Amino acid sequence: MAQDVVKHCSLWIVFSFFYLSGLEMAVIMSIDGQPQPTLWQTLLYTFLYNALIGHLVTKYEKLWPFLASIVISLFGVVGFGVFFGDKLAGYSNELIIGLVLSLPFATFLVKQLKSKNFENNA
């Protein structure tokens, strides 16, 4: 059991680096695409990207998809984005907190939608 957790966490941490690359592009595009950028619109546009990632997490991680999204979000945004890479260091704390919470929430919603869709089809 412990070996599985370590193996899965290692994969999630590696994936979080690549998640940050896409998230950084989504943040830049959402800010550049707005005439008057606001925090809520930026979080809404990046939530759409996180919904896609949440779909991938629930598709490929069968044991702990919600825990995977938390680890990916924390290591991607806080670990690689703020501390190790400084890619997201120039943004506001509110945006950083919103980005950290967005992926677990999106993963939860995607998982609920998939289970409702499965129940309706059965």
Describe this structure in words.
This protein has 122 residues and is mainly alpha-helical. The chain has one domain (1-113). It is built from four helices and no strands. The protein is flat.
Summed up, the domain count is: 1
Q: Note the main sheet.
A: none
Q: What is the quaternary state of this protein?
A: single chain
The N- to C-terminal Cα distance equals 32 Å
Give the rounded overall mean pLDDT: 91
Keywords: Membrane, Transmembrane, Transmembrane helix
Transmembrane segments: 12-31, 37-57, 64-85, 91-110
Short characterization:
This protein is an all-alpha fold and 122 residues long.
Q: What's the SSE blueprint?
A:
Blueprint (H helix, E strand, L loop, with lengths): L1 H31 L6 H22 L4 H20 L8 H29 L1
Q: Key terms for this structure?
A:
mainly alpha; 4 helices; 84% helix; 122 residues; single chain
